[in-house]
Amino acid sequence: MGDSTYLHPVALTWSQGPKKLKKLKNKLQLYFGSKSKSDGGECEIRDSDCSPGYITIYFKEEAARDRVLQRKDHELKLPDGTTLQLEVRLPEDTQSTTTSPPPQDRAGASQAEKSRNLPEKKEVSPSRSSSPVLIENLQDSCTSEILSLLVGNTSGKSMDTDFYIERIPEIQSAVITFTCDIDIADFIGKFSGSRRVKQHKLKARRLEEIRSIRVERIPSNTPEDMVTLYFESAKNGGGSVEDLEMLLDERAALVTFQEEGVLKTVMTKRHMLNNNPISLYPYYPSIGHCLYGKEGPHMEIPDSVKIPISPHILAFILKNEQIKTKC
Question: What is the per-residue DSSP string for 77-142?
Fold first, then answer.
């Protein structure tokens, strides 16, 4: 029987079943007990029956339990280098309907009775639309066409219609962005287990939730304070800026917000800074790159260059048909 002060449960599942998951009890308790790793807090894992298809983690504080549920991605890295994709939900949302009475805690209250005091469940199902997956160790021999087939064969989805690929040759990687409903954790598990994928020595992981954007096409000589104030304006879909790095040579900036939710609002708007259009792209610090999306980066046509020329040379060019044809 566990400590009666731990009254805020979550159900934990993964693709290889609860019994194997239970063997990682100590690593899981360290992960979910760390606010920096999982947004969790003080917790315990009880050696209860895992036949319902999950194991239960009990948090001491309700706020810690809620933070864990609100976080979309939970990953546990093992000593052998593999990464487990974990899913957490409220227990009543994972267990099968049963006719047996609910378990009793020390105070004699049933889990069903306790669940009435829990906040309304937030949607914490596996990350779905437009969830980016990083494919690492991508060699030149694995062309975009081959990678597209590997992803399509694993997911049953179609290139362009259901997903698109952005290659990042600088880090020998590519990012797969799904534009359809798909269980990302399930896809990563199947992709990593594919014999063809193993032959290419590819590794797949879900990209983290981010709070940063890359801003491009910033007008020259724009003060840093103006960029900060622009993105802190609610009118522009912004919020409190935690950090800003100006990239003057690139007419760009990296903006990091204090809250994750700001990214969704700011990316849905069109932006004008000093009456000039600017472009925003999600930036992932873990790979040091932004994602430009299906359309790619905005390309600006350079201004035409005027070169003074002697009227005698111009007359010669105009008379020479071969030169005129090449021009």
Answer: E-TTS-EEEEEEE-GGGTSPP-SSPPPB-TTS-BHHHHHTTSPPPP--SSP-TT-EEEEES--TTS
HSE of 177, CA atoms in CB hemisphere, 13 A: 14
Assign domain 8-97+108-115 to its CATH architecture.
2-Layer Sandwich (3.30)
Give the CA-trace dihedral at 117, 121, 124, 130, to 10 degrees. -150
- CB-based contact 196:161 (threshold 8 Å): no
Q: How far apart are CA 242 and CA 256, in angstroms?
A: 6
Residue 91 contacts by C-beta under 8 Å, 6 or more apart in sequence?
A: 9, 10, 11, 54, 56, 111, 115
Q: Can you give the residue ranges of every domain in the chain?
A: 8-97+108-115, 132-206, 212-290
Average pLDDT, the chain: 81
How sure is the predictor about 295, in pLDDT bands with cuts at 50, 70 and 90?
A: confident
Domain at 212-290: CATH code: 3.30.70.330
Q: Is 3.40.190.10 the CATH number for 132-206?
A: no
203: nearest Cα among 172, 236, 237: 172
* Residue-wise pLDDT tens digits, 125-154: 333 345 799 999 999 999 999 999 999 999
**3 state SS of 240:** coil
The confidence score (pLDDT) of residue 18 equals 65
CA-to-CA separations, 293 to 132, 182, 231, 282, in angstroms, rounded: 11, 18, 21, 9
Residue with tokens 């879909």: 237
